[in-house]
Amino acid sequence: NNNNNNNNNNNNKDQDSSMQQVHPSTNAVGSLSRSKPSVHSFSSSNYSYSSSSSARGSHYRRHSCCSYIPQRHPEQQQVSSTTGSTTTTSTSTSNGATTMRRSNSRSVFSDAEMSHAQSQTLTLTKYFGHDINRFTHQSPQEPIFDSALRNFIEPHISKARKAREEQRRLILDKMGIDPHTMDTLSIASNAFVPYPGLRTERPFLYDMETHPLHQILADTLHVSDLSLIHEHSIQDKRVLLSPLLDEKKRRAFHQCYDNFVQTFCIPLMHSLAISQKMLVDFSRNPHSQKIYYRYQAFPCLRVIRPNEFSIGPHCDMAYGHSIGNINFHIPLTPTYGTNCLYTESHPGREDWHPLKTKSVGLGYVFDGARCLHFTLENTTPSTRVSLDFRIAIYRDRGGGGGADYGTAATNHELFMPFSSSQAMMEHTIISHSVPREFHSQYSHQYQHQHQHSHQHQHQHSYKRSLSEPDYDDECSVHDCLCHPKILEDNFSIFPGYYEEAFIDMGRDGIGSSALAAGPVVQKKNHILMPPDKRVGFPF
Predict the structure, then answer these.
(1) Quick one: DSSP state of residue 307?
(2) How far apart are CA 321 and CA 370, in angstroms?
(3) Can you tell me whether residue 363 is helix, strand or coil?
(4) Residue 195, by phi and psi: left (phi above 0), alpha (psi -120 to 50) or beta?
(5) Closest CA to 112 of 139, 143, 89
(6) More exposed terminus of the chain, fewer Cβ within 10 Å: N or C?
(7) Residue 536 region, left (φ>0) first, then alpha (ψ -120 to 50), else beta?
(8) What is the pTM of this model?
(9) Looking at per-residue confidence, does 362 or 453 come out higher?
(10) What is the mean pLDDT of the segment spanning 335-358?
(11) Which helix (H) or strand (E) holds 407?
């Protein structure tokens, strides 16, 4: 026993000295969080190790019965193997000498702790997908976003959060919202956001025979299988996708996409809006009861071959898209592991998950305008090909739709749409932030203002009491479609990026176009708009 104790003490001293040689210069978290270097301390009696930093502190304790394998030194390379309860470590130095250490105990580090320890030697780059690829050791599997990985990618996510918040405040300021109200609302709030009920992430199935998007695209590009594009004899992606630049060659695919949006996507959104009573309008515009759907004229085509990645964390709102847009994600190949699109289920939730598809015919709707989403470096053996496009919904109140609606509402404010979330938010904030005697005064001013503006337009006035809402005026409660001030974005300044189609609800609200002969969805422009560089690669 005495001999064993002496041997253990000598082993502890050797291991203490080896750790002191490896760790004093280690700055694990400092390069990521731009904080002070980590402080390490060791104790030979309890054999404990502690690490602290201003970004995230962590404490590990190892007793004498446990072995601790230090991190790799820049001049050393360690190879460890564990069999049963015996751990053998081989250390190779720069001069070629090799030393062996054996411990008769099993390491009690969990997999997450070991992964976190290995990640501390990594430094971030500007390429988000490449950073996660290095962190996960090029694993093609779906990454587990535990605390270690979240800490590692935090600088990327933080940058995306900041860009989203800045753009959100610009949009609210454009709508005339005061800064105090902005501060009370988080990104997760649906106040002043059009049709929040349609923004819930949901998968859907479509008929591949009716809408053979994948097959027509493959025929256009002269490939047999889109998931095997990386095995094509033409490796230059721009040359491979060059048929889409020719109007005649892409016409079949363009027509198939346009038909898919008009006969499937718009009716899908319309049925959901009807089921949630979002299209109810009691203003009774005598000129028109049309519901307009503004959609992307040509989809964004994503072709991510193995060892490629496209974009890091972002939301479309930060890139100049309207907050009124709803995103459609249509994979044309099976998606799994690292070739998926990753997103959060609700703005600010950051519950990162992939939009997986086992086969073609499954698509997704999600709030890409506000939800952060990203792609990873594709380490799978297959190529991901997918379509991404956006749809916004608004009401024709000026009689002509499109630009007439925006002009009438902006210049005269005759038919101002209010979302139900906006009405609820205003009622809640004002009712709890101002004295009770102010309610009647505010309500009287509000009624007088709108009665004066509507006296020559409509027999019903917008009268809304903040203390006791008037439910006879359902327009202000249920009309939560897109307002022209937030419908406009950087991509609508010049024509060609968006198309418009409408469904005529009729004066009875049933839908006269549904009872008449012909398609339910009617397109304003019957030509195919040629795509430009705003669509992205390869245009």
Answers:
(1) T
(2) 10
(3) strand
(4) left
(5) 143
(6) N
(7) left
(8) 0.67
(9) 362
(10) 97
(11) helix 403-412
